[in-house]
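Quick note —
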Amino acid sequence: MKKKYIKDTYLREVTDVDIKITKDDALNAYTVIKKINSTNEPYISNHTGEDICLIDDGYYVIEQLPLDEKYLVRAFFNKDKVLKGYYIDIVKENALENNELYYLDLYLDITVDKLANGESLVMVWDANELKSALEAGKITKEDYVLAHKELVKLFSSIANEENIYMLKCLEDIKNI
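Predicted structure written out below.
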């Protein structure tokens, strides 16, 4: 299992960033807003067959880390605050340690890309990496089952466009 600190994630090639962290007591979650001021080069995703710029100068990354859930939501917005996509990490836990937010990554991920035609494409990633982690003893069988159960649960909330943390990202960008 990989322990990842929020202050270090999704900042590849970023040379200047402002990070704001707030706690939402009603949701028992942390909101992290990363304003990308400058990058060495844009981060372009192309796993859909369509280039989608997720990180560049003036872009935003908003992360929701719910303490009572087994996932976190990461939303990418361009400089005009237009949603470009989501990246959802399935995790064993989200937590705060020594005033630093982290998560224990269970390898399995979901992306929701916003295509130029307005449609969304949902994809699952790293199922083989999850299986390899189980076989290598990096995670337990319970962790493996947990990741798959969470995946099924998430698909329902994504398909019905009712995931409260995805919706919160859309709300948060309006207040920036």
